[in-house]
C-alpha cells in the first residue's frame, strides 16, 4: 500500500478499468474509513465508504489527475457522512415521535381503564345490599360461592342467583356507560 501513494499524482484515472478500480479501492478504503469515522463513528464508517465506492464503480467516472480523484472521493465520503447523519437524525425523530405516541396512547389506555374500574366500583355500591356484598366477596375478596354461602348463612343456590342477577345488572349499566364514554371520545 505504501508504494501506491508513491505514484505520481498527475496520472489519469479511469474507473471503468477494473484493475485500477480495485487498486484505488484497496489503497483508499482504510484511510477513507478513518476519515468517515470522524463524522459518523465506527458504526457507519465502512458502510459509507463502501457506498461511495459502489457509486463510483457504477458511474465509471474518469479523472484527469489523481488529485482530482482524491478531492472527489474525500468530498463524496464527507457528503455521504452528512447524509447518513441527517438520515439518522430523521430516524431518531421518527422513533421519538412514535415513542411519544405510544406513551400518549398508553396514558390514554390507563385513564380509560381506570375510569371503567371507577365506574364499576360506583355501580357496585348502588346494588342492593346482598347483591353488593356477594359481588365484593366474590370478585374483590376472591371467595368461592360456597365460602360466601357459609359466611352469609345462605344457600349456595341463593348466592348463585344473587350473583347472576348482580352481574347482569352491572353488565347492562356498564355497557351503556362505556358505549356513551366511547362515543364521547370519538367526537374528539
TrEMBL record:
The keyword Transcription applies. Coiled coil: none annotated. InterPro entries: RNA_pol_sigma-70-like (IPR039425), RNA_pol_sigma-70_dom (IPR014284), RNA_pol_sigma70_r4_t2 (IPR013249), RNA_pol_sigma_r2 (IPR013325), RNA_pol_sigma_r3/r4-like (IPR013324), WH-like_DNA-bd_sf (IPR036388). Residues 121-166 form the RNA polymerase sigma factor 70 region 4 type domain. Signal peptide: none annotated. Belongs to the sigma-70 factor family. ECF subfamily. NCBIfam families: sigma70-ECF. This is Sigma-70 family RNA polymerase sigma factor. It comes from Sphingobacterium faecale.
Amino acid at each position: 500500500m505504501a508504494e501506491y501513494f508513491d505514484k505520481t499524482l498527475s496520472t489519469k484515472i479511469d474507473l471503468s478499468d477494473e484493475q485500477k478500480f480495485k487498486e484505488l479501492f484497496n489503497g483508499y478504503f482504510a484511510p477513507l474509513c478513518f476519515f468517515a469515522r470522524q463524522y459518523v463513528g465506527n458504526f457507519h464508517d465502512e458502510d459509507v465508504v463502501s457506498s461511495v465506492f459502489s457509486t463510483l464503480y457504477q458511474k465509471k467516472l474518469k479523472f484527469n489527475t489523481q488529485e482530482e480523484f482524491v478531492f472527489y472521493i474525500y468530498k463524496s465520503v464527507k457528503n455521504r457522512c452528512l447524509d447518513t447523519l441527517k438520515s439518522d437524525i430523521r430516524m431518531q425523530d421518527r422513533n421519538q415521535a412514535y415513542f411519544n405516541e405510544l406513551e400518549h396512547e398508553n396514558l390514554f389506555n390507563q385513564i380509560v381503564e381506570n375510569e371503567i374500574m371507577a365506574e364499576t366500583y360506583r355501580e357496585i355500591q348502588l346494588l342492593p345490599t346482598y347483591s353488593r356484598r356477594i359481588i365484593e366477596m366474590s370478585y374483590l375478596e376472591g371467595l368461592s360461592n360456597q365460602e360466601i354461602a357459609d359466611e352469609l348463612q345462605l344457600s349456595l343456590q341463593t348466592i348463585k342467583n344473587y350473583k347472576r342477577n348482580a352481574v347482569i345488572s352491572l353488565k347492562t349499566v356498564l355497557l351503556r356507560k362505556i358505549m356513551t364514554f366511547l362515543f364521547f371520545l370519538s367526537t374528539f
